[in-house]
């Protein structure tokens, strides 16, 4: 009960206190006071006065008789009117108590308008500001409430400045990270290319000949590294570019089976179920190719694909039997440039996530690295076609 | 002789009032009396006042009991007067007065309240012959306790503010007396 009262708004507290005051204090107090008044007034009426006065009436003295009669009349009127006087006082006290209750009620209404509502509005505004939503706070009130509004306005301005600074700093840091990683990634393939070219130059400088097989080997080596550079550039371009999906309806099961056919030399794919989805077929193809590539690189030999229906979505769960991702790395797989495999760019899964979300879908990843059960499971939700 | 007669009548009225059930609600009774002229009919009105102890105590304390009595019909204007029951503390008698803007009339003195009430609650009205609707209205007025300079709302004591009666005069006039 105490907690219930504590959680009430102030205007309700005032009303409850007013009702309690009226019922438990004012009305009983009024009864007590009225009874006391009645007793006092009844004591003041002397029933022996009239006989006493009558005993002074003289037949031969009209003037005295008149005065005595007036006194008797006054005494009688007083006795007769005592109940009505007490009733009037009782009514007046009750009116005062009700008036006090009405005053408290009006105060409760005033506090609702002038305190509770403005405070609630400020609380809602503070919540929105905390969530980054732009809110206009107007300084309408005076006194302490007005000062609070002013403080919130200046706090909001400070927060905006801090956010802008943080954003700028974050952007700067992000660019630095990208530049650092790009430099590192570009350097990796450039080094073998440079080494190969240095070997060719050294051979020639030392007067040696290069055989045809060696030239083929050197060219292959350089081509491999150029391919790595190209892949790096493509991944970066995919990640940097805003995906602009072009939505069409297509059967997801058929697409998966066609990818499975293309990959059958490297990995076996078992696909069950199907659904008609609304998405960009090209982007979905790219997503699946990325996933298959990752699984193959992780040593998977079999891919299990289940297509299920959940409300308005088709859920495509792809499970491989690769080496899996350790639990401590799981939450970082979506961060760009974080990679746990040799030669990786760290952009594969971030690109996949970006593409899926651009098609109003979602993706989740789970993994296990146990001896009997290892692999990664990716579940992608895409919008189903209603037809 | 008159005193003895008044005393006996008062005694019987007291017992009648004591034995009869307490009527909370007042009412008006109407009865044909006579033709003043062929054009004017006199009706007798009787107010069953619903007398109670509190009213008696107030009247005995010298606080007058006043009613405004008015009547009108579809063939006449409103006629009203104030009837006030008083207790004379010097002479220890009751009397009542009828007053309006034209005249004041005082009754005789009564030694007992019941005797005074019997006449206090009866009056006559004149209604044009041929009127088909008539209304009699009795309203209690506030009274002043002179010695205490206080106005008392007598309707709270009486239990009601007013009582009225509407009637068709032609239905009250006995058939053989119709002219």
Taking the sheet with the most strands of chain B, its summary is: 6 strands, antiparallel
Given helix and strand content, the structural type of chain B is alpha+beta
Structural class of chain A: alpha+beta
Describe the sheet with the most strands of chain A.
5 strands, mixed
The secondary-structure element order of chain A is: HHHHHHEHEEHEEHEE
Report on the structure:
The complex is a heterodimer of chains A (about 375) and B (about 180). Chain A has about 375 residues and is α+β, with helices and mostly antiparallel strands. Helix content of chain A is about 65%, strand content about 10%. Chain A has a five-stranded mixed beta sheet with strand order 2-4-5-7-6, with helices on one face. A two-stranded antiparallel ribbon of chain A has the order 1-3. In chain A, helix 4 (about 60-130) runs parallel beside helix 5 and helix 7 packs across helix 8 (about 280-295). The longest helix of chain A has about 70 residues, at about 60-130. Chain A is rod-shaped and about 170 Å long. Chain B is α+β, with helices and mostly antiparallel strands and about 180 residues long. Chain B has a six-stranded antiparallel beta sheet with strand order 6-5-4-3-8-11. A three-stranded antiparallel beta sheet of chain B has the order 1-2-7. The chains are: A alpha+beta (about 375), B alpha+beta (about 180). Chains A and B meet through helix 4 of A and helix 2 of B.
What's this model, at a glance?
The complex is a heterodimer of chains A (387) and B (179). Chain A has helices spanning 2-6, 10-44, 49-54, 62-130, 143-205, 212-240, 252-263, 281-297, 348-358, and strands at residues 248-251, 268-272, 276-279, 302-310, 313-320, 362-369, 374-383.
